[in-house]
Amino acid sequence: xxxxxxxxxxxxxxxxxxxxxxxxxxxxxxxxxxxxxxxxxxxxxxxxxxxxxxxxxxxxxxxxxxxxxxxxxxxxxxxxxxxxxxxxxxxxxxxxxxxxxxxxxxxxxxxxxxxxxxxxxxxxxxxxxxxxxxxxxxxxxxxxxxxxxxx
Length: 151
Ligand SMILES: CC(C)(COP(=O)(O)OP(=O)(O)OC[C@H]1O[C@@H](n2cnc3c(N)ncnc32)[C@H](O)[C@@H]1OP(=O)(O)O)[C@@H](O)C(=O)NCCC(=O)NCCS
Known about the structure:
CATH class: Alpha Beta
CATH architecture: 3-Layer(aba) Sandwich
CATH topology: Aminopeptidase
Strand content: 35-45%
Distance between the termini: 21 Å
Number of domains: 1
Largest sheet: 7 strands, mixed
Bound molecules: coenzyme A
Helix content: 25-40%
Number of helices: 5
Strand order of the largest sheet: 1-2-3-4-5-7-6
Shape: globular
């Protein structure tokens, strides 16, 4: 588990595209686009965010971004290569993110996820997060579920 460098950006963008393509059809086009940033767009979104990557034999299998927002830790862009799922890749990413949050003196970690990304609910509950509510039709008509874990 390492922080990403600029050299990793093309591989991360390609991973995010495969993750978006693996979603069942029906994702609003604006969201499908947001989940597939190009390298320049991703670079501009990196400001103030620490990204970790999980690698196996040099290949990036998953990523997560951590930022301190309003004095606590927000996780974003949590994604694992479709064919590497259920092998604890996201678990390793979450452990790294929670360690980072503790070192950053964040009292909580929170995540906002599209309700249709149902796998993330199972993952986060497995790691002690609780569901804090739903923002209805919040992102281009999609419900967004909030999860939090007090550290
Ligand atoms: C959600 C996601 C990151 C999980 O990654 P993963 O590497 O497969 O997760 P792990 O192997 O670490 O899972 C650990 C535990 O979480 C739970 N879990 C993970 N995926 C699950 C699923 N699809 N359904 C139910 N529970 C799940 C299980 O308890 C699992 O333990 P188990 O395999 O022993 O039963 C991955 O499915 C993904 O990238 N999904 C698409 C993108 C997404 O939803 N991102 C979140 C938006 S913020």
